[in-house]
Write a structure and sequence with these properties.
Layout lengths: L4 E4 L5 H10 L4 E4 L3 H8 L10 H8 L3 E4 L3 H6 L2 E4 L14 H16 L5 E5 L7 H14 L7 E5 L9 H6 L4 E5 L2 H14 L6 E4 L1 H31 L5 H9 L20 H14 L5 H27 L5 E4 L14 H11 L4 E4 L4 H8 L4 E2 L3 H6 L3 E4 L19 E5 L13 E5 L9
Parallel strand pairs: 1-2, 1-4, 2-3, 4-5, 5-6, 7-8, 9-10, 9-12, 10-11, 12-13, 13-14
Antiparallel strand pairs: 6-7
Amino acid sequence: MTETLSFIGLGKLGLCMATCFAMKGYKVIGIDINENIVKSLNKGIAPIIEPHLQENITKAGNYLRATTNYEDVISKTDITFIMVATPSKPDGSFSNEYVEASLINLAQMLKKSDKKYHIFVVSSTVMPGSIEESFIPLIEKYSGRKLNDGFGLCYSPDLVALGKVFHDYLNPDLVILGQSSKFAGDKIAAIHHRVVENNAPVFQMSLIDAQIAKVAVNCYITYKISFANALANICEAIPGADIDLITQAIGADRRISPYYLKGGLSFGGTCFPRDTIAYRAIAKKYGYKDELMAAIERVNKYQDDHLFEITLKHNKAAKDKTVAVLGLAFKQDTPVIIESPGITLVTKLLAQNVKVIGYDPLAMENTRAVFGDKITYANSVKECITKAGVCVITTPDNAFKQIDASYITGESLTIIDCWRILNPSKFNNNVKYVAWAKNNRILP
């Protein structure tokens, strides 16, 4: 018999996760307090932007429906995944407010139910110790049941990236699975094995180990990003050095691997920046001073500051003093602008009274909500370039990779290519091409 699943939280990740499970034949009920999301989903319309979401909602068909009613979770499903926000607190740790509120509602419903057992799966990123110190006691208090008797609890965090959420959910490198009992863990492991398409290993472990592992994964990735960025900064100062050939070579070593090893801009988004801060908060809580993570944060800030410095120098030398910023999301294929290098650059330029025009295929609405009429908004890549003397490419979006001489209409333009996605041989003499991490980007 196939279990019926429920998902609490239909945001950027929760909705995609619920859709994946429905596509694979599980009957899924999604619960969210946002009525617009619920209504849209029940009409078969994707309420958010994420590649392949609409087509996959269509594929899921009647296996996926949504509601605002918590009672359906306990009475009509066997396993509940919780993917609600855990916003950062001032000290960098994650807030459990929304997870706890969800668990209280669920536990109260479970208390009224005559079913013998229900499994709760927390997928939101939480501070290590949250499950033992908060979640389990809450469920026991409000349900009147005991762990591993009337309910089980697992921790199965997402390891996905916005812009390719479906690929990452269906083809993960691994699945982290913390379990309160082998029975509960085996149930969730079986579900993951059915959903994933690449036979990824499922690591069943204790709840505390899984909570630590989730934060550790993201923090280790920031180590690699920061090393590549620091190496790129060194290559910038060495004539003839090619950061891309160097990282390709050392990435071929199996001990290193090529993933996330490309010199470029700072890391941003919803996970990496806040997970690094949370890691330091965890270390401090247990009496360890983490110097490595502090250094990573300094490297990341330096990338933002250095991009602004380079842009400002080239802007002062340009005839047209307007700066075009291509790439306002924190990465390509997403509308999310949280901790975006492009947004950070715009903010710094505005503080110096520099005129800015921006364009991004997906993030224009979110950008307008931040800056209002303080900057100009282009309708296309070409329009953005045409109205500026300096153009900064902050994401390797496919739309930007098409730029060539046909896009250039002014007398002169400086292009600062932060990911080295363009071929400078396609430009005329009226274009000064500046490759990030290359020695030629420093003005005399």
